[in-house]
Amino acid sequence: MKLPIAISTIAIILSAQSAAQTSLFTCPEYSLTSTGVVQGKARAVARSRSEIISTYQSTYEKRTKREIEFKFSINGLDNEGPVAHNHVIVLPRMGGTVTSPLYVFGQPDARTPGGQELSDAVYLESDADLLVRVDMRHVLEDLKTKGFYETFDGKRIPSDSFKGVYVAGNTEPLSWDFGNLPSRPEFCLSDNANQGIYEVTVHFSKSYRRPAARDSVRI
């Protein structure tokens, strides 16, 4: 029996057991008590009939695809373009240091990057560091001269509300969780040269393993 399966039985067991921890079953693979299960270094404990806290970490590693879809964001909002109108870049198979083209905020690019073939190697074979660049000069000019910038959907961002530029995407460590971008400084672009060109370097590992859960799970 695998740990996730064993965990799913805890809530049922609790309905018939007292709060005191009682050993129910032990085998070489795992141990089951009235309040939890232990498998190797992983431990899961039922706080109640509907809540479990666990240190279990999956050993499954997800390989990283070379094709990355992403979008820029002002103030952590999905406001560069319509849904699914994303920028696309294909990382080199062997990874390394990569500099993106200079994208223009709000301006779409071709869905399939010309001249980049994925048929022979879909996944990264080594880690990659991607320097992402976006031209914000027209946005800054509107903020200065008009007092606002109008996004593709007609919404206005007042000049005094401009907080920053972020990047979101479909490949870890990026995500489409726009709401949490302001709390992720590693995805905030900077205009270090004060020329209206914002940049940030994003590290893509060749594979990712889901981290252990930090919070309890309700079932």
Write up this protein.
It is a single chain. With 219 residues, the protein is mainly β. The protein has two domains: 54 residues, no CATH class; 146 residues, no CATH class. It is built from three helices and 17 strands. The strands form five sheets. Strands 1-2-3-4-5-17 form a six-stranded antiparallel sheet. Strands 8-7-13-14 form a four-stranded antiparallel sheet, with no helix packed on it. It has a three-stranded mixed sheet with strand order 9-10-15, with no helix packed on it. β11 and β12 form a beta hairpin.
Low-confidence stretches: 10-19
Total beta strands = 17
Helix and strand element order: HHEEEEEEEEEEHEEEEEEE
Whole-Å distance between the termini? Answer: 20 Å
| Main beta sheet | 6 strands, antiparallel
Brief sketch in words of this structure:
The protein is mostly beta strands and 219 residues long. The protein contains 3 helices and 17 strands.
Topology:
Layout: H1 3-8, H2 10-14, E1 23-26, E2 31-33, E3 36-39, E4 42-46, E5 51-54, E6 61-63, E7 67-74, E8 87-90, E9 96-104, E10 128-135, H3 137-145, E11 148-150, E12 156-158, E13 165-169, E14 188-189, E15 197-204, E16 207-209, E17 217-218
Parallel strand pairs: 9-10
Antiparallel strand pairs: 1-2, 2-3, 3-4, 4-5, 5-17, 6-16, 7-8, 7-13, 10-15, 11-12, 13-14
